[in-house]
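By convention, each integer encodes one residue's backbone shape. The lines below illustrate.
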Amino acid sequence: MRGRAISFRLHGEKRNPVATRNNLRTGCSVPDSGIYRVKHSQHQLPKEVTLIGNQPFPRCSKCAEPVYFELVRSAPAMGTDANAFNVALYQLPEMVEQEDDSVSGSSVA
């Protein structure tokens, strides 16, 4: 095998593109840790979520349509402590309204 170069291709973790200020959506990385307003007309998702920088923006648990976000309040110190407990949010659950028995007038005897 003289004269042939051998190359190796490493398959690492796929990186999400960093979102721009005008395009905060599923499929991109969160640019800044903080509280984000959720925008998704297809399903009723939580109104706001707390996200950590460099994590992927979460998707809708019910569909493949992108979820859009708006930064409400930045929290730059959040997620920087290596000893802190952090939870990555990968998908947003649909919020289902539950009927309140006390409003309907039914009671248990």
